[in-house]
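Run: sequence + pyridoxal-5'-phosphate -> complex structure.
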Amino acid sequence: MPSLDDFAAGKLAELERHSLRRALVPTARTEGIWTERNGRRLLSFSCNDYLGLTQHPALKAAAIAAIERHGVGAGASRLVTGNHPLYAELEGRLARWKGTQAACVFGSGYLANAGVAQALVGSDDLILIDELAHSSLWTGARLSRAKVLAFRHNDAAHAAALLGEHRGTHRHALIVTESVFSMDGDRAPLSDLSALAKQSDAWLMADDAHDLGHGDTADVPLRIGTLSKAFGGYGGYLCASQPVIDLMRNRARTLIYSTGLPPAVIASSLAALDLMEGDPAMAGLPVLKAQSFTHAAGLPKAQSAVVPVVIGEAADALDASRMLEDEGFLVVAIRPPTVPEGTARLRLAFSAAHPDDEIARLAGIVRTRILKNA
Ligand SMILES: *Cc1c(COP(=O)(O)O)cnc(C)c1O
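>> structure
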């Protein structure tokens, strides 16, 4: 037992030395995009609550009604008795919303990504994955036992070269990327990747976790999404053809061997979809706010609601984050291994709920006190 504790303490000391130790900080979120931390009220630019739905009255009411009707837990895996009737309604509506034949809801975006690849490819197959793809996509790729090759970030030509070299010796090939990158906010070249996939008989999967549903029209047969960000609740999903979705229900272990989501979570996602479909302009608002920020801060125009301010060293990113906290902003520093070594950063996520005057004040501080030193 002491060797175990020694091991853990040693690892932590090493992380501490490199400014990479992490801690959970109690953070109350009760007032929209305002948070309370260490006794202080801070305007958060670190929540993925893009549309301000986590505390929306319509979502709360839907969740409460679902609890009253169905109880708090699903009781079993969806394949056994956990498939309460709200699931079919949500899956039908997600498929229609994304323009696919069918959809399958998983316990989270992480579980969707960890499970989908394994149901499609195995040890005779090839996965090409963008080097900056989310941890959950890497987990799924590695669990599949396929040969995994990383292509340079957003470099379809590199992906093509790797396919040229390796496609012939593998049965199936899967190309994996994010449509909007979670830590960089840039968009994948989905039409190029889609053309490449067709040309090489490969399957393309894109993770739309940070894509607020306006933008690309590329033909992507496997669309991953999350109910935990713009939807304001929890859960993940795959939108695809009916045969692919039916295969997931038979083969995706993270779906089959995990309990269904609480009914309240599914009900709140249905209420979120009602709001998004009722007001299509709402989804565009976070990107507009991000663009007003990048314009005022003198940064390249935002391509999405996510804006990175790359600092470099982890300790400097922590200092910048603390300085912003003193100014009343919550902007969490993102450090390796979440981002590559030497690219520690502030990552700002813009929400429809952010006040314009506060965005302008933050941009001024970033321009004069952070970028000037960078
Ligand atoms: C957040 C995120 C996930 C995980 O989704 P959860 O529903 O939070 O588990 C997956 N992929 C990307 C790109 C993400 O940013």
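>> summary
Residues 4 and 238 are 39 Å apart (CA to CA). The domain at 74-261 is CATH 3.40.640.10 (Aspartate Aminotransferase; domain 2).
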